[in-house]
Amino acid sequence: MQNKSKKHSSPTLRKESPVSKEMKQRKLEMLLQKVRGFEDPDPTLEQYATPAPLAAELLHFAYMKGDIEGTVFDMGCGTGILAIGAALLGATKVVGYDSDP
Fold it and tell me: What residue numbers bound the domain in which 71 lies?
């Protein structure tokens, strides 16, 4: 079995993120609903998509604690929903890594 990995990195975001820092959790959830899931998920690879409501709640909680600042690294990013959400909440840099090509 060949182990291929992929790394996604966003360029450094402008100080003004595409969405205001005062974004409400519901607005974030609505934006994350647009993230495409896996076309043909493989349970043996544990490809489970994180639902947008759960991702928004987790990200909003981290944001309120001040944890979405600077660089955010999403290990095992899958669809990238958490990395995308961190970028929307104003992370300076977001890196997503997943071992499944």
Answer: 21-34+49-101
